[in-house]
Amino acid sequence: MENSTYAAPLFPDRAITIAVTGAAGQIAYSLLPLLASGSVFGSRQRVALQLLDLPVTESVLQGVTLELEDGAYPLLELPVKYTSVSEEAFANADIVVLLGSFPRKPGMERKDLLAKNGAIFREQGLVLNRVAKQETRVLVVGNPANTNALTLSQFCTAIPKVNITALARLDHNRLRSLVARRLSCAVSDVHDVAIWGNHSSTQYPDVSFAYTSGVPVGKMRAALGGESQLQSEIIPTIQKRGAEVLALRKLSSAMSAARAIGDHLRDWMLGTASENELVSMVVASDGSYGIEKGLMFSFPVHCYRGGRYKIESSLSIDSFSRKYLEITQNELISERDEAMRVVSKMC
Ligand SMILES: NC(=O)c1ccc[n+]([C@@H]2O[C@H](COP(=O)([O-])OP(=O)(O)OC[C@H]3O[C@@H](n4cnc5c(N)ncnc54)[C@H](O)[C@@H]3O)[C@@H](O)[C@H]2O)c1
Ligand SMILES: O=C(O)C[C@H](O)C(=O)O
C-alpha cells in the first residue's frame, strides 16, 4: 500500500475498531490479513476486529478467527470477536465494512437482487442507527454497492451521509493499471484517472484528467489511441472487468477487491499520498456535475486525514463524457426507485 507504513496512528492510545460483515466469505479472507498486519492503517496503529456472518457459516467464521490468531500479528487485539448478531459486531466500531450481501443466483432478475439486498441493508442501517457512533465510517462493498449504500443511509440517520461510502476503488485501480500497461509505465506514475457513477457495467472509466510524467493532462485520450479506441476498447474493458474475472475464476474478484478496500480506507482515513491526487469513491452527490443530489454516485474526490473527503467539482465535462455520465446516472435512478419501492413496503 502507498504511504501508510509510517503514518502516525489515527488513535495512538487505543485500537481502531473495524467491523467486517460477510467475514466468512472470500473477500474477507484476503482483506482481514491486510487490516491485521498494519498494511492499511499503518505499522503503529493497533487494530480490533469484530467479525459478522450468518449463523450458518459459524464454523467457517470460527476457523477464520483461529487463523487470525495464528498469524501472531503484533498489532491485532486478541481475542478476535466473531458473532452472528449485528448489534455486537457494530458496537463501538470506528469503521464498518459491509461485504455481506445476497449474491445473484441463476434466473434472478436485477429487481429480485435489489429486493433481497434492500431487506439486508435496511436492517443493517437500522442496527447501525441504534448502536453506531456518529463518527463511524461505513464502506459498502456488497453488490449492488451504490444502491445498498443508499438504502442503508435512508435507515441510518444517526450517521451523517458524508460518513457512508461505497467501493469504486477496484474500478479505479483497474483503470490505473490498464493505462500503465498501455503506456508501458509504472502504475505509480499514473495519476488522476476517474470512475464516475455506478459500480456496474454502466460506470464511466474516464482518462480525461489523467497524466503521467510523459503524458500531460489533456493528452491522455490521444496517448491511448483517441476517442474511438476509448469507446470501443478501453472503456468496455474496465466496465466488464468484474464479469471477465468471474467467468475465468468462477468466483468474483476477491484479492483485488480486498486490496481496493484497503486503498479506499487508507486514503479516506489517512488522506491521499498527495493532497492533489484524485481517487474515486461512491459518495452522496452534492449536485456537482448535475448529478441528482443524494444519489450514491462515484466521483473523483480528494481525501484528507481524519476521514474527510471533498468531491472535486471543478472538472470540465465535455460531450463525450456527458453521454456516459447520463447513462450511469439513469441506471442509478432506476435502481434507487426500485429499491425504495421495495423497502417502503417493509416499513
Ligand atoms: N464493489 C466492488 O467493487 C465489489 C468487488 C467484488 C465483489 N463485490 C461484492 O462483494 C460481496 C462479497 O463478495 P465475496 O466474494 O466475499 O462473497 P462471498 O459469497 O464469498 O461472501 C459473502 C459472505 O457474506 C455473508 N452474508 C450474506 N448475507 C449476510 C448478512 N445479512 N449479514 C452478514 N453476512 C452475510 C455470506 O454468508 C458470505 O459468507 C458480493 O456482493 C460481491 O458481489 C463488490
Ligand atoms: O461480484 C461481482 O458481481 C463483480 C464485482 O463487483 C467486481 O467488480 O469484480
Describe the structure.
The protein has a 6-stranded parallel β-sheet with strand order 3-2-1-4-5-6. Helix 2 (58-70) links the parallel strand 2 (47-52) and strand 3. The N and C termini lie far apart (42 Å). It is globular and about 55 Å long. It has 347 residues and is α/β, with parallel strands linked by helices. 42% of the residues lie in helices and 15% in strands. The model has no long low-confidence stretch (mean pLDDT 95). Bound molecules: nicotinamide-adenine-dinucleotide and (2S)-2-hydroxybutanedioic acid (LMR). Residues 21-22, 24-27, 52-54, 57, 99-101, 103, 120, 141-143, 145, 167, 170, 199, 252-254, 257 line the site of nicotinamide-adenine-dinucleotide (NAD). NAD(+) binds at residues 53, 117, 141-143. Belongs to the LDH/MDH superfamily. MDH type 2 family.
**CATH homologous superfamily of the largest domain?**
Lactate dehydrogenase/glycoside hydrolase, family 4, C-terminal
Query: Approximately how much beta-strand content do the residues carry?
Result: 5-15%
What strand line-up does the widest sheet have? 3-2-1-4-5-6
**Average pLDDT figure:** 95
Alpha-beta content class: alpha/beta
CATH class of the largest domain: Alpha Beta
Low-confidence stretches: none
Unique bound compounds: nicotinamide-adenine-dinucleotide, (2S)-2-hydroxybutanedioic acid
Give me the Rg, rounded. 19 Å
Number of domains: 2
> Gap between N and C termini, in Å?
42 Å
